[in-house]
Amino acid sequence: MKVLGRHIVAELHGCEPGLLTDLDRTLEILRDAVKAAGATYLGEFHKTFEPWGGVTAIIALAESHISIHTWPEYGYAALDIFTCGDQADPWKAYEHVVEVYKPEKVNVTEIKRGLVRLEKLEERGER
After folding, report:
1. Of the residues 15, 64, 67, 96, which is catalytic?
2. Whether 64 is catalytic
3. Which domain holds residue 15?
4. Domain CATH number, residue 107
5. Does residue 69 have an active-site annotation?
6. Quick check: 58 pLDDT over 90?
7. 68 exposed, middle or buried (CB, 10 Å; 0-12, 13-18, 19+)?
8. Predicted confidence (pLDDT) at residue 124 exceeds the cutoff of 70
9. Residue 41 and residue 77: Cα distance in Å, rounded?
10. Burial status of residue 90 (CB atoms within 10 A of its CB: 0-12, 13-18, 19 or more)
11. What angle do CA 80, 112, 76 make, to 5 degrees?
12. Three-point CA angle 64, 113, 76, nearest 5°
């Protein structure tokens, strides 16, 4: 079997609320995470929500995406990193984000996406 992509889903609990409301810093952190992963930046979307100031930031990658959604009133952030192919390493992006946000607790899961039988790849000449 071949894995087409790796998808990291992480919950960051106990983050400093001020950081979770800082959109400029959030974008800087995610852009640096893209570089750390060796991924290819394509563009981004972001928004600040009122009244608590939580942010959503999504960076599109040639390899897929990285996103974060924050709830400063709970000290919580939901992080999502999905990369396809063999070039980008989503765990390096994850490590960078966790290093900066310094959560008290993290729940993280990796989902293997697009399991493909090697026979199918051979049939198509891709192996």
Report:
1. 64
2. yes
3. 2-123
4. 3.60.90.10
5. yes
6. yes
7. buried
8. no
9. 22
10. buried
11. 25
12. 65
Number of domains into which the chain is organized: 1
* Identified catalytic residue from 7, 15, 67, 84: 84
User: What residue has token string 């980008």?
Assistant: 88
What residues contact 106, with CB distance under 8 A and at least 6 apart? 10, 11, 12, 13, 98
pLDDT at 49: 95
Query: Which residue type sits at 19?
Result: L
Query: In the chain, which residue ranges form alpha helices assigned H by DSSP?
Result: 17-20, 23-37, 90-101, 118-123
In our burial notation (b when 16+ CB lie closer than 10 A, e otherwise), range 31-40 reads: eebbebbebe
Question: What strand order describes the sheet that includes 76-84?
Answer: 41-48, 55-61, 64-71, 76-84, 2-13, 105-116
